[in-house]
Specification:
- This protein has 17 helices and 23 strands.
- By secondary structure, the protein is an alpha+beta fold.
- The chain folds into two domains: 244 residues, ATPase, nucleotide binding domain (Nucleotidyltransferase, domain 5, 2-Layer Sandwich); 205 residues, 2-Layer Sandwich (Nucleotidyltransferase, domain 5), CATH 3.30.420.40.
- Helix 10 crosses helix 15.
- The longest helix is centred in the C-terminal third of the chain and has 25 residues.
- It starts with a strand and ends with a helix.
Length: 493
């Protein structure tokens, strides 16, 4: 018997099967095989059709069942992870009224900034733990201001994962964790964020009903079953945004535990029980999947836009064949890259740098002594230093890391990168071979409880290796301090 896990991304849908008894991953598929398109009517806009997600979900399920010879009755529960912060609005029949305004759409930035100014920093940090910024609530306000005829027809708004659950079950609901990612949860009053809804003039009746993150949220109905190939009556047991779900996939639940990803952009997601919004303009705070008012678990999310994309740019523009070749070149250069520094912030405005857009900087190159190997090393170190810099921000906001767990992806496959981060933060980095879809499938089993056993399943099935901090930290610290001086020169201009 199996659980089905779905990861609703903006580039693709991933679907996974895990064996219920062992938690072992049976298989993962991706639909479509090429990236999904985004509709951008104007610069800075990004939209997708929610029914395209559903079509790809159905296709992925069909492929999984065929490739692994699994029948619909063998799938006993569903877990859903999804791209965060998106907005789906539907009419009374449940039909989308417009394309979804997805996470990377920036049209509501100024709406969020004005809300922060008008409501005040104290209210935003103590109640919402965040600036309203460009999140779901602000996007809904944009619709109200700019598409009033559509707004009048709204029955409910949903997050992307809520919509997929609705398509399975014909039931509209959401979670506290989901509302918090839209800046729609009031942590101080433990309720929907009336203070923001009232400021934006949004009717509270548009908010879906709230269900537990782990539990019988709804069941597949006849129509959802016919379209998806899942048996009617199959429960949906779990739902969470992609970053909280990635943390869950890495067994990150408790204060001090940190999940990290090192793809095109980098993410550090740290758990705390402290309702602090001190760094609310640089760090996002969300109710983690195991949040309870009586036992708060907050995920502090720090994003680094300029991460793996920097290394990929070098791959495309240096005379090298692969990341492995670049890593080999870098390994021949000493710590600190002989003074060469790269600031890897060339992928748009960096929230952790107070939304400054400083670009990538390559400095201290000596044309007589330095070559592409130095640049490869400086890039890996620069990205690693940006993670360390982000950890310093998190520490100033109350995080005391005890362990870092990361997926076996892109940057964390580089020993130089992982060793640099581990040594400077003085924490072990545990590497796991897992994905968000596998994590969502396993999370379906947590409707029974058993969080203690969940970690053992991940360790038994997915642990690849552990990077330990080097005892001699000084050369890394010297290189980091040199890099930070270069960053501060740019930031203080």
């Amino acid at each position: 018997m199996y659980y089905l896990g779905l990861d609703i991304g903006s580039s693709s849908i991933k679907a996974a099967l895990v064996e219920i008894e062992s938690g072992k991953s049976i298989g993962v598929v991706q639909e479509p095989e090429e990236e999904m398109s985004m509709f951008a009517q104007k610069n800075g806009w990004a939209e997708q059709n929610p029914n395209d997600w559903w079509e790809h979900v159905c296709n992925a399920i069909a492929r999984l069942k065929k490739e692994y010879n699994v029948s619909r009755t063998q799938i006993k529960g569903i877990g859903i992870a999804y791209q965060m912060h998106g907005l789906v609005i539907v009419d009374k029949l449940g039909n989308p009224l417009r394309k979804s305004i997805i996470w990377c759409d920036s049209r509501a930035v100024e709406i969020g900034h004005k809300a922060f100014e008008d409501l005040g920093e104290e209210t935003c940090t103590s109640n919402l733990l965040n600036s309203p910024a460009n999140f779901t609530a602000s996007k809904l306000k944009w619709v109200k201001e700019n598409e009033p005829e559509i707004y009048k027809q709204i029955h409910k708004f949903m997050l992307p994962g809520d919509y997929i659950a609705y398509k399975f079950s014909n039931t509209i609901n959401t979670t506290i964790s989901g509302l918090s990612e839209g800046i729609l949860w009031d942590f101080k009053n433990d309720n929907v964020a009336d203070v923001l809804l009232e400021y934006y003039g949004i009717d509270k009746a548009l908010v879906p009903g709230i269900v537990e993150t782990f539990g019988n949220q709804s069941v597949v109905d006849q129509k959802g079953g016919a379209e998806s190939g899942i048996a009617a009556g199959t429960p949906i047991y779990y739902r969470a945004g992609d970053q909280p779900n990635n943390a869950l996939s890495l067994n990150v639940f408790n204060p001090g535990e940190v999940g990290a990803t090192g793809g095109t952009s980098g993410v550090v997601y740290a758990i705390t029980d402290n309702l602090s919004g001190k760094e609310s303009t640089r760090v996002n705070n969300f109710a983690h999947v195991n949040y309870l008012k009586s036992k708060p678990r907050i995920g502090k999310l720090l994003n680094i836009n300029g991460a793996g994309i920097q290394y990929r740019w070098l791959l495309n523009n240096l005379d090298v064949n692969s990341y492995e070749d670049m890593n080999t070149l870098a390994s021949n250069i000493p710590i600190g890259s002989d003074g060469v520094c790269i600031l890897p912030f060339g992928n748009g405005a960096e929230r952790m740098l107070n939304n400054k857009e400083i670009g990538t900087r390559l400095v201290n190159v000596n044309l007589n002594n330095h070559n592409k190997a130095h640049i490869c090393r400086a890039a890996l170190e620069g990205i690693a230093f940006s993670f360390v810099y982000g950890m310093e921000i998190l520490k100033s906001d109350g995080i005391t890391p005890t362990v870092i767990r990361a997926g076996n992806d892109n940057l964390f496959r580089s020993e130089i990168f992982a060793n640099t981060v581990a040594t400077l933060i003085e924490q072990e980095i545990e590497i796991y071979n897992t994905t968000g879809a596998i994590g969502a499938a396993r999370a379906a089993d947590l409707h029974k409880g058993g969080f203690e056993d969940f970690g053992k399943v991940i360790m038994d099935n997915d642990h690849v290796m552990t990077f330990k901090p080097f005892k001699n930290k000084q050369p890394y610290l010297k290189a980091y301090n040199n890099w930070k001086k270069e960053l501060e020169l740019v930031l203080n201009k």
